[in-house]
Amino acid sequence: MRATKLVITIKYLTYKDRLKRLKLPTLKYRHMRGDMIEVYKILTNKYNNNNNNNRCTYNAHIVK
To answer: Which band of pLDDT confidence, cut at 50, 70 and 90, is reported for residue 2?
Structure first.
């Protein structure tokens, strides 16, 4: 919400209107998308939970 207000020309618009103008997804959509990605990783065994420090690896990157 705050970052969209930094665009001076659309500062006066409502949050939803600013998102539409900037062609950005809503926070609710981003949360749902993130959840779906996590479910996909779990179902396709993309996580490696054998690490000693309780971190998961995905595509050779450590996810904190």
So the answer is: confident
Quote the DSSP letter at residue 35. Answer: H
Domain range enclosing 48: 25-64
Q: How far apart are CA 55 and CA 6, in angstroms?
A: 36
Determine the straight-line distance between the first and last CA of the chain, rounded to whole angstroms: 25
Tell me, yes or no, whether 41 lies in a domain.
Answer: yes
Helix (H, G, I), strand (E, B) or coil at 62: strand
The answer to whether residue 7 sits within a structural domain is no
pTM here? 0.57
Q: Is residue 10 a part of any domain in this protein?
A: no
Greater pLDDT, 40 or 63? 40
C-alpha 11/C-alpha 14 separation (Å) is 8
